[in-house]
Amino acid sequence: MRIYSHFVSGHLINQFLIVNDETMEAIMIDAPDLDGNIIEIIEKNRIKLKGLLITHSHEAHVASLGTIFKIYNPSLYAFFDNVSGYEAVRVNDGDVVSVAGMEVRCFHIPGHSLDSMCYLIGSALFTGDTLQSGYIGQTRALIEKELLIQGIKEKLFTLEDNTLIFPAHGSLSKIRVEKMFNQDILEANITIFS
Fold it and tell me: Which domains does the chain have, with CATH numbers?
């Protein structure tokens, strides 16, 4: 398995392409942009884009769906069965699907958005905006923040400590590092007595 990372400056989002070395079939994580760089990687390496996993349907993460479907014909996977007018295979918490010959474990962790999904492929965890290096995704209310932190602790922090985190924003991390240093989660553990 190979992972290509592409920074989309227009949306300040990391986009990932995961390639099955045996079949040269691939999965793309989110669709913020489809520029010449990512197309060149796909075409130059004769990669067959088989799946597109959506971490959540905020506009910046699905902006290039139309362009992708004009050029390629991947199956779309998301929490909702329709994303910006495109039919998707609905995935939910605990689902395991085979995409491009690779096993994908799905984790539904609402909080940042109702449809927030994380995907584990091998030892690589693609977290979208749910969990990032040092912080968690933005929420609009305290209850959403608590729901998000609870989901991270129960579903992601139970994974192997050396699981690599590939977030939509910022640098890569590991589960172990986030358990020790994630400021949002550490602050949530502090109880103030008055």
Answer: 2-188 (3.60.15.10)
Q: Give the C-alpha separation, 91 to 79, whole Å.
A: 5
Question: Cβ of 22: how many Cβ atoms within 10 Å?
Answer: 9
Burial class of residue 176 in the structure, from the number of CB atoms within 10 Å of its CB (0-12 exposed, 13-18 middle, 19+ buried): middle
What are the strands of the beta sheet with 13-20, ordered from one edge? 2-8, 13-20, 25-29, 48-53, 75-78, 89-90
177-192 pLDDT per residue, tens: 999 999 999 988 754 4
DSSP string, 42-80: HHHTT-EEEEEE-S---HHHHTTHHHHHHH--PEEEESS
Report the C-alpha dihedral over residues 182, 188, 189, 193, rounded to 10 degrees: 140
Q: Which helix (H) or strand (E) holds 107?
A: strand 102-108
DSSP letters along 137-169, please?
---SSHHHHHHHHHHIIIIITTS-TTPEEEESS
Reported pTM: 0.95
Those residues whose C-beta lies under 8 Å from the C-beta of residue 100, and which sit 6 or more positions away, are 18, 19, 20, 23, 25, 26, 27, 48, 50, 51
Rounded Cα–Cα distance for residues 148 and 178 (Å): 14
CB 165 within 8 A of CB 175: yes
